[in-house]
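Morning!

This is the sequence you dropped in the shared folder:
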Amino acid sequence: MNLFVGNLNPDTTDSDLTKIFSEFGEVLTAKIVKDNITGDSRGFGFVEMADKFHSYDAIDNLDCTYFQGNIISVKEAKAKTDRPAPGRKRTFTPRGEGGPRPRHDSPRPRNDSPRPRNDGSGSDRFNSRF
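The structure's back. Tokens below.
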């Protein structure tokens, strides 16, 4: 099972993750995500464990714990397909049957009736002038 580990200290290494997670079971891989340009840690990483029950044990015992100066977050990692591609906005389908809302070919009907005018009698208090 793949685990997401967040809020890591910038100095945390892959071997540090392997060491702490191996207390709960076999660690297949441990990887700190680094910035492509600077090579600095982005503050999170992933740990893949061989057994899902050991993974749940690690989540229960390590989530919200103090590790190398930070309180870390340990969660089950979500598949990449659940997230939009980088730089792309997520689009939502409008209410209804799932497609875009239909466009109407005709413009909205206008109200062509003439506006009432003030005849000066004072009966229309909103349109009368003082």
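Headline: The chain has a mean pLDDT of 81.

More detail when I'm at my desk.
O.
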